[in-house]
Amino acid sequence: MRKKTRVFVSFDFDNDKKLKDFIIGQSRLADSPFSIEDHSLKEAAPERNWKDKARAAIRRSDIVLVMVGPKTHKAHGVLAEVGMARDEGKPIVQVIGYRNGDYTAVPNAGRLYRWDWANLKKILG
């Protein structure tokens, strides 16, 4: 059996928490080639050491997945996590989290993909 790709999910906590929940659900499908450990904060007020915890989780991951919503490109936490991933040499990809709307890619966070099962299996497999 092939080892699953370990994915760190970066998302706009204030606006797009449900996207993280959806991608975790997809990671649990029988044919999913990736796994996600939920390292996100449980509340909106960040812990003092959240950056240390995020960096450690990014180091343990194989790839960083940015879930893109309307305001993600301005979310400070996402921008910090993307910087950490770049510092750690981790590949980064982005998926558009919603069907409708106009979305701006997060700077320096890799290619922007549509969110569908075929794309997820291709980029996270």
From TrEMBL:
Keywords carried by this UniProt record:
Transferase
Give residue ranges for domain Thoeris protein ThsB TIR-like.
8-95
GO MF annotations for this entry? Answer: transferase activity
| Designated name of the protein | Nucleoside 2-deoxyribosyltransferase
The record lists the organism as Malonomonas rubra DSM 5091
